[in-house]
Design goal:
The protein has one domain (about 25-120). About 45% of the residues lie in helices and about 0% in strands. It has helices spanning about 5-20, 40-50, 70-80, 80-85, 110-120.
């Protein structure tokens, strides 16, 4: 086996791996100004499925605040650094694996981007 044949298979495997590891981008950074993100259709379902659940920011007394409606989510954005928390850019990454665990899983990039665009647009779109 010559030199080219010996390295072509590992190189091809690496190339396939790199190409297949794309980030999930439902909304690209450029499109925030082009597309209005709806709170009720896009943001609230993400919050409801990942944050406003039993034992977390739903009706649990363990959480410092709830995130069940627009006003409460607006408060989380303004005073509790919601965006930094879901981006895992601070001391309190969210959503947590459980209410009693410090470990957190990161939301898909597309979900973070929708919330980020909604905030960037002044979170006026209900």
């Amino acid at each position: 086996m010559n030199y080219l044949q010996r390295w072509s298979i590992p190189f091809l495997g690496l190339l396939i791996f790199v190409v297949s590891c794309k980030k999930d981008k439902a909304i690209s950074p450029e499109s925030c100004s082009l597309q209005q993100v709806s709170f009720s259709l896009e943001v609230q379902p993400i919050i409801n499925a990942n944050c406003a659940i039993s034992g977390c920011h739903g009706t649990s007394p363990n959480a410092p605040f709830t995130m069940l409606n627009y006003g409460q989510i607006d408060t989380a954005v303004r005073f509790y650094n919601l965006l930094r928390a879901i981006k895992h850019e601070g001391p309190n990454p969210m959503p947590r694996i459980s209410a009693f665990s410090a470990a957190a899983t990161k939301l898909p990039d597309s979900s973070i981007r929708k919330i980020s665009c909604w905030i960037e647009q002044g979170h006026l779109n209900n």
